[in-house]
Write a structure and sequence with these properties.
3-stranded antiparallel β-sheet, 10 helices
């Protein structure tokens, strides 16, 4: 159970929510483990299937408190709301921002700046932790180039320039990604990013991790009332969750990429768990996918200090926090959107 920015997150799957007077009560079986006054909340997010009482649903609806239900893996199921609760006005403002190049580039610039910063941090962390095992000069040279990309991203004035800067920075980062694979190097070679389809084992895992991360952000955006299909960097395309793809840029390297490196370097995954199709596409088999998802769930439960809030949160809660911060910026509660700069 965690309360952030007036939102109550109930992350354990076996919790039941009920109403007692003016309080939401969190129960594990017959035992009460916590309660929070309703007047302190603007939304509740619960993960799992145990549920909530009709009385609590009614109280939330009448007080315009959003009550969202997610699966234990973080997929959005449903949301109980009262009359509007500002979501319509929030989305209308989101669409206005998306249609305004000046306003949308301001958000996109912050997102891509954070992406490049976090990619640079991955390289700098490797230099610090493994100075005797890596080509330090090569990594430092790439890190210096990313510093230049970082400066350019901060000063980009249109989305075309920003896309070019982001693409070049991603190429620089992935040019040394293979160096960060310290174990099973012969079995897990990385010669560059391939997407549709992934053509090696590392790319297969990266693509799957990005899909999982995008789903987390889409659920988070639904929860806070934003439209995950209307973005500020990734433009509209039927069926594409553009805003989720925007925000996940911040966590690609520090969450998804680090996760893939960890399960390789810790030998959680081995080379036998993959299959290759006739077109060259490489995919995980069922057992490897299960092991991947198990490790992914464990990763989401790790506690970090959020760099903007300076509060303890689970990794899996970061997409929800960032989505709430974006919603607050769009509403005018914040001067600018604070992206996730990992420290």
């Amino acid at each position: 159970m965690k309360k952030l920015l007036n939102t109550l997150f109930v992350s354990a799957p076996d919790r039941y929510l009920s109403l007692d007077g003016e309080n939401v009560v969190i129960q594990a079986g017959e035992k009460e483990i916590g309660r929070v006054p309703l007047h302190n909340l603007e939304s509740i997010v619960t993960f799992g299937y145990t549920g909530a009482s009709p009385a609590l649903m009614g109280a939330c609806a009448s007080r315009n408190i959003s009550l969202s239900f997610m699966t234990s893996h973080g997929r959005f199921l449903a949301r109980v709301t009262g009359e509007v609760k500002g979501n319509v006005t929030l989305r209308r403002e989101q669409y206005r921002v998306a249609d305004d190049p000046i306003r949308s580039i301001k958000i996109a610039r912050n997102i891509i700046t954070a992406k490049i910063y976090n990619s640079k941090w991955i390289i700098e962390r490797a230099i610090r932790d493994y100075p005797l095992r890596l080509d330090i000069e090569k990594l430092r040279a790439k890190s210096k180039m990313l510093s230049n990309s970082l400066h350019m991203a901060r000063n980009a004035i249109n989305d075309g320039d920003l896309r070019g800067i982001e693409g070049e920075a991603a190429s620089l980062y992935f040019s040394v990604f293979d160096n960060l694979i310290l174990q099973q190097k012969d079995e897990f070679k990385f010669n560059g990013r391939t997407k549709r389809p992934p053509l090696d084992k590392v790319n297969a895992m990266l693509s799957f991790a990005y899909t999982m991360l995008a789903g987390m952000y889409a659920s988070a955006l639904e929860t806070v009332g934003l439209d995950p299909y209307v973005g500020f960097f990734h433009r509209d395309r039927p069926g594409r969750i553009s805003l989720a793809l925007d925000l996940m840029e911040e966590l690609r390297s520090v969450f998804a990429d680090r996760f893939v490196l960890t399960i390789i370097n810790k030998r959680i995954i081995n080379e036998r768990g993959f299959m290759q199709k006739e077109n060259g596409a490489v995919y995980m088999d069922d057992k490897t996918r299960k092991d991947f998802l198990s490790a992914w769930q464990s990763k989401k439960q790790e506690i970090i200090i959020h760099p903007f809030l300076e509060e303890k949160v689970e990794w899996g809660m970061v997409p929800y926090v960032q989505s709430m911060l974006l919603a607050r910026y769009i509403r005018g509660d914040l001067d600018e959107y604070p992206p996730f700069f990992w420290k």
